[in-house]
Task: inverse folding
């Protein structure tokens, strides 16, 4: 990022130092071409970076989700096993399983909501980057069009064609508009990266909250199981058959 910022500072410095009012025609035209090439380089760099960030973001989302799923599986290993000789226990255990299954379904529903929120949280920033990118491409197309227009209208006088082109650029304040768009894109890309890290933190908090609620529901279910099996005064800690 420091390298990119340094490039941007150079970008500004060159523009201010090489305005056609004080520099030769060829140098001014070279400066315009330099700006176009810089925008192309930055666009490619941003594309590669955002692609890599997005892939890493997806992997981390899966890692966070899997961690809580594994915690659920670990918890399930402590569930009670059937005791065929005790009908009352089997009945209560069945009730406990049904309630636990419902608790799991609630968790998966909330998990899906957390993931959807995480997946869509950065859409506005991505859209903003795309919009700025479209504007930059429009300016590049205008640059090529006006350049071709001037040289087409002055095929036998390259210097006159160059002056024609520079006049168009100055009239449209091309350099300053282009600089603002490039600078805005850099800021938006930086904000996107920061936002993606915040989104991952929010996803983990969201899933942790839902997992805690899941555990609370399971604990309540165990209390129901104890109450069910302890109807005759014997709790699950005794595992005592009421028929004996």
Result:
């Amino acid at each position: 990022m420091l390298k990119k910022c340094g490039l941007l500072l150079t970008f500004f410095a060159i523009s201010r130092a090489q305005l056609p009012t004080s520099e030769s025609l060829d140098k001014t035209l070279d400066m315009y071409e330099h700006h176009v090439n810089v925008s192309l380089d930055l666009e490619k760099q941003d594309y590669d970076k955002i692609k890599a960030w997005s892939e890493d973001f997806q992997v981390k989302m899966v890692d966070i989700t899997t961690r809580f799923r594994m915690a659920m599986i670990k918890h399930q290993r402590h569930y009670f096993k059937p005791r065929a000789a005790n009908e009352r226990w089997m009945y209560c255990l069945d009730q406990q399983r049904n309630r636990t299954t419902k608790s799991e379904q609630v968790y998966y529903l909330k998990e899906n909501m957390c993931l959807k929120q995480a997946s869509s949280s950065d859409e506005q920033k991505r859209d903003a980057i795309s919009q700025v990118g479209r504007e930059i491409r429009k300016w590049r197309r205008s640059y090529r069009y006006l350049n071709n227009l001037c040289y087409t209208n002055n095929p036998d006088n390259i210097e006159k064609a160059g002056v024609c082109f520079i006049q168009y650029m100055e009239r449209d304040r091309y350099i300053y508009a282009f600089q603002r768009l490039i600078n805005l894109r850099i800021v938006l890309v930086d904000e996107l990266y920061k936002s993606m890290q915040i989104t991952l933190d929010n996803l983990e908090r969201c899933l942790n909250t839902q997992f805690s609620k899941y555990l609370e529901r399971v604990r309540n279910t165990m209390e129901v199981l104890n109450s069910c099996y302890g109807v005759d005064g014997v709790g699950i800690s005794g595992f005592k058959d009421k028929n004996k």
Remarks:
- DSSP finds six helices and no strands in the chain.
